[in-house]
Amino acid sequence: MKHVPRDEFVPRAMKFKAFSNNALPIGEGQTISQPFIVALMTDLLETQQDHRILEIGTGSGYQAAILSRLVKHVYSLEIVPALAEQARQKLSKLGYDNVEVKIGDGHSGWPAQAPYDGIIITAAASHLPPKLLEQLKPGGRLVIPLGMPYMHQELLLVSKDLNGQCHTRDILGVVFVPMIGGSEETLPEH
Ligand code: SAH
User: Which atom of ligand 1 is nearest to the CA of 182?
Assistant: First the structure.
């Protein structure tokens, strides 16, 4: 986290707050997560250098940039096209070349690149999207805030064992923007 310049991922007007331990608005009604939560979720994934990670909710691209320093490749899906485009440009300008950003609904995951060693969802879902569980490797970990919009949400760690059984653990209460969309249809590949 020392090496990824958070001030590059927030709007100009928010730069003076970039190094405070707070979520900040990034436009389109969305936020960049609080650094403590980024660190915690990253840690829970127990990443290794050869891992391929799927992120749902690119937002500013900051979480993806952090992950990109720890793993081989980050695939990140964002449902708001303007944010996806902005994050793609930012990540490329700053040289985070092992991050791929795609516009899409995270409920369907990114089947073409599955399975993943880890999946991180950075918007609050009402339920565990089944397609994402399917796209997690046995032995893999998934981190997701579950709960109703702006109400009590719980950060969950889901571990898939080598037999494909999933085990969940409550980590702590959190507040995330809601995961929107929700069609279980697979979107066409771009
Ligand atoms: N990880 C981001 C923070 C994201 S805020 C960062 O580091 O800045 C949550 C993001 O999830 C928002 O950008 C929102 O547009 C996106 N989002 C919400 N629902 C989604 C969905 N169904 N699929 C993909 N992205 C979604």
Answer: 22
